[in-house]
Amino acid sequence: MRKRDMLTPIGITIGFIMIMLAILSSGGNEGLASFLDIPSIFIVIGGVIGSMMITFKFEQIKLAGNIFKQAFHKNDQELSELVQLFIQLSDRARREGILSLESDISEIEDKFIRKGFLLAIDGVEPEVIKDIMEAEITAMEDRHFKGRVLFEKAGEYAPAWGMIGTLIGLVLMLNDLSDASALGPSMAVALLTTLYGTVLANLFFLPMASKLETKTEEEVFIRQIIIEGIIGVQSGQNPRILEEKFSAFLPKGALAKLQEQDDDVEFVGNSINEA
């Protein structure tokens, strides 16, 4: 079961609450009503949607919902759990041979790990395994980029459409200076579209794109460690050597936690990265 990343919804909620508090503190309910303008919403939202449809293929736009969900979930793999897994598999492979891992591999849910170990069990050379799995990482990065760029572009378009709305409002206002009653609505369109576009870009689209980029970097980092672990197990590295190698990637205290969780493998390394 995937873990939820609560920081994303909390951050968005805090941002909106701060904006609402600023509005309400200056004008109460009337102040809030003055910040709602339907034409401005249509200009920004409609403009962003239109620009996205011009920029991207329909198949890519359809993936936006699934990509959006990724920002609200954490990566499945925990680094400490991976280290524990590889040390255990290395210990067994040294005692019983690499072929003895076949039954264990079938129980691993992660397809990337399972694929790598199946290649190792089949006797594929370490260099070939690394090339195959790094090619898969590259393909994953490309898929993630195509999803992330949707939000990056939306973050670029939203302020631009806000500015377009501002220009529309100013034109309407200048064309009707003789009618004092029309100045207020026209000025509202002029200012609120910029506000809506800026808020959407800086509280939603761009932070979401940055979050997805960070998740991709984390996943690439973990998969690189997985490759090293698989090659280490295949080459028959001592579990203690693997432990020392991976301990550099673990945060402070994580290796001690593994010692408490695992009774089958002796953890003796103390080399932990302090960063």
Automatic annotation (TrEMBL):
Record flagged with keyword Cell membrane: yes
Major localisation: membrane
Key words of the record: Cell membrane, Membrane, Transmembrane, Transmembrane helix, Transport
Presence of the UniProt keyword Cell membrane in the record: yes
Topology in membrane: Multi-pass membrane protein
Transmembrane segments: 7-26, 38-56, 154-174, 186-206
InterPro entries hit by this protein: Flag_MotA_CS, MotA-like, MotA_ExbB_proton_chnl
MotA/TolQ/ExbB proton channel domain ranges (all copies): 106-221
Record's subcellular location: Cell membrane
Protein's GO biological process: bacterial-type flagellum-dependent swarming motility; chemotaxis
Cellular component, GO annotation: plasma membrane
Protein family membership: Belongs to the MotA family.
The protein's name: Motility protein A
Lineage, opening ranks: Bacteria, Bacillati, Bacillota, Bacilli, Bacillales
